[in-house]
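Expect sequence, tokenised fold; for instance:
***
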Amino acid sequence: MHSTKLSKQHWLLILTLTLLTFVLGTSEFVIVGILTDISSSLHMTNAKAGTLVSAFAITFAIATPIVMSITSHFPKRKWMLFLIGSFILLNALCVISTSYIMLLALRIMTAIVTGVLISLAMIVASETMPINKRGLAISFVFGGFTLANVVGVPIGTVIAEWYGWNATFMLTTFLGGLAFLTSFFVLPNKLSQIRSSIRDQFSLLTKPRILMAFFIPALGFGATYAVFTYLVPILKGMGAPNHSISLILFGYGFISIFSNILAGKIASHNAIGRLQFVFLVQAVVLTSLFWTTNHFSLGLANIGLMSLMAILLTTSTQLYLIDLSGIYQPKATGLAASLMPVASNVGIAFGSALGGIVYHQGNLMNVTWVGGIVAVGASLLTFFSHILDQKQKKPS
């Protein structure tokens, strides 16, 4: 796999990893669409049912880097197949859950499995592809999450409406079976296996350059979610009919597919150099909403641009963290691969909270300024990181 072109074997592996992230994403995100069904069935409040979402996100963020560090020496193929098998079992048990406590425990364990599998998928995509095609491969793998939001979640929600929320977990169990079969036949046997101590792994987090790179996607996602979290009230303020909001949100998700494609192109050359300007454009797009939402058509077009900008950072920052790990702590690439998904969750939580504070202080549309300011912060952090990269490349 050292050529500069993608062979059929490469593409088969890319599509297998994309299917895996689609399945994992559907399982993670669909809970939002079936939350009221769960709360009604298990006789609890929607607020209590909502802890199933927050518990998943918190567990994902905390457990993923820890488990990746502890298991860095595991054979990747066998470990991934074991985790996919565990995912199938956990989702099957969700089908027969009869209490909140049981479902919460299963979702927490699923979060651990999901975080580790996502990180491993990114490592496999990075190390098995020609160097100039890594960005394309990882953008496809990230694309699985986009498809999960656009296709998987709506299907899972409809199934819950027709047959009950338990049936949605039957769907994710079935999809997990497909992911296991394709992975069993396609995942290569000879994947890197690095033996290192937990101390070696976590020493990566003491490197200032790694921490700087971590907060680039955290701020990037934070900028988007400061606004996106409150997109429904923004749409209602624009005069969007209630029956059209779900269609608009579907359109938002559909546009993000193209954002994912562009993310791969940005990552193909001078990714961090390009990304500093991407964040500046994102800042303009987000702040423009303050004015464009006064006109329905202009507002919708601006929201479409917001979706297009939302995940342009994913592929570049994922590869950047892995590459920086190769420089500062080569034994910790597993931990490095887990940092981007963790950073995205940190950014989502940070952006949503920050937007919420501003929203409750007064004018809803002030969240657009918050998003713009955070995006400028991401641009500045990227700029400084790029400058340091350039200095490092210069001969002493």
Remarks:
- The two ends are 34 Å apart (CA to CA).
- The mean pLDDT is 88.
